[in-house]
Amino acid sequence: MEYQLGAAEARFAEIIWASAPVSSGDLVRLSAEKLGWKKSTVYTVLRRLCDKGLFHNEGGVVTVLVDRVSFEERRTRRFVSESFGGSLPAFLAAFTARKKLTGEEITELQRLIDEAKEAR
Hints:
- The protein is mainly alpha-helical and about 120 residues long.
- It has helices at about 5-20, 25-35, 40-50, 70-85, 90-95, 105-120, and strands spanning about 20-25, 55-60, 60-65.
- Strand 2 (about 55-60) and strand 3 (about 60-65) form a beta hairpin.
């Protein structure tokens, strides 16, 4: 599966994730309201996202094959892998080099680390 979405594809995917299962007619209406898209644009982008394995369109109903959380997880893992050799500490070091973490962020990260230790 391809993990990259352009900005327009991402906005469209958000509509599907929020509405699915959704009829293609309702998807055209929602896309016109939220994105200003015409029917032909909706079907073109929908076909691309279906080809990427995110959604399925059958019988005029669009369903989710990969939920948003799973998609973001896969995309993040790929980014860390390609950009930081798969090293989460290297990613965090780069992320925090210019942006200092808040106390809440540090607490949340520590909670995640503690949960990961317990799961081992």
